[in-house]
Amino acid sequence: MKNKKQIEDNLPKHYFAYNDCTPSCEIEECIIEECESAGLNIYVDEELAEQQGYDQAFIVENPYKDKLEKVLKICEINSNKDWNNDFENKAEDEFKEIIKIIKEVA
């Protein structure tokens, strides 16, 4: 049997769940609408609900997370770069790459 820490470590970063005694249709509808209006993906996970002892569970994911991580990585690398002595990479090319990534999701 898993302890509480093991269970928490296996949970998705963002999720919600509820029991049938809660006015579920109102809660579910509100949460789904808010997630979708924010551009997030939300889907039912019956296995998660069963594992956690709930009647229903939903997982919420940010479809832009990978793109944001790419932009963050480029920015972190470039923030420590000595652009005056870097003849291999042009700063404007780095910014063009960031713009390209942003445009893919905008």
Structure summarized in a few sentences:
The chain has 106 residues and is α+β, with helices and mostly antiparallel strands. The chain has 5 helices and 3 strands.
Keywords, separated by commas or semicolons:
106 residues, alpha+beta, 2 domains, three-stranded antiparallel β-sheet, elongated
When the domains are counted, the total is 2
Q: Which structural class matches the secondary elements?
A: alpha+beta
| Total E-strand runs | 3
Largest sheet: 3 strands, antiparallel
Order of strands, widest sheet: 1-3-2
Strand content: 5-15%
Oligomer: single chain
The number of helical elements comes to 5
End-to-end gap: 45 Å
The outline comes out as: elongated
Q: Low-confidence spans: pLDDT under 50, at least 5 residues?
A: none
Give the mean pLDDT.
Answer: 80
CA gyration radius, whole angstroms: 21 Å
Share of helical residues = 40-55%
Can you walk me through this structure?
The chain is an alpha+beta fold and 106 residues long. The protein has two domains: 4-61, no CATH class; 65-105. Helices cover 55% and strands 13% of the residues. The protein contains five helices and three strands. It has helices spanning 4-10, 24-37, 46-52, 65-79, 91-105, and strands spanning 15-18, 41-44, 56-61. Strands 1-3-2 form a three-stranded antiparallel β-sheet, with helices on both faces. Helix 4 packs antiparallel against helix 5. The longest helix is centred in the last third of the chain and has 15 residues, at 65-79. The chain starts with a helix and ends with a helix.
